[in-house]
Amino acid sequence: MTKTTFLAEPGKQEIVITSSFEAPCQVVFKVCSDPKLIPQWWGPAELTTTVEMMEMKPGGRWRFVQRDPAGQVYAFHGVYHTVALSERLVYTFEYEGTPGHVILVTLTFDEQDGLTRLTEQSVFQSVADRDGMLAEDMQSGATESMQRLAELLERITNVTLPGG
Fold first, then answer.
1. What are the structural domains of the chain?
2. Over the stretch 37-78, which tens digit does the pLDDT of each residue have?
């Protein structure tokens, strides 16, 4: 089970989420950047995620769509700014249900002693936007996503080990 920590300091426009995984950095990066694997961990388990577009290059666009059991649709999109393999991803994030509230996200991948620490820094346009995201219980959704990511990494790592 992975532990996810949140840092949302009062009056600041950012949230920093950190999780550690028992998997090599290259594998964690792959799971976070492979459109075939993202639907297996991104978002709450009761939602079905579809990767409609994912152009992993600076200036490339991405769009994910989620559907709940009742058929409600939630769509998200953005643009990649930095793609540094197994090191960092920088991209914008915008929920299409509330357009105009763009977040700049930086994912940093750091491996040490067989553990990969994934740090997500989300910078909002305003403190009000950041506080609004927190009020929507973003923390529980992110925690569930990180737990699902850990479970997927465990399955993938066990399969990819020699003799596995």
1. 4-44+80-154 (3.30.530.20)
2. 999 999 999 999 999 999 999 999 999 999 999 999 999 999
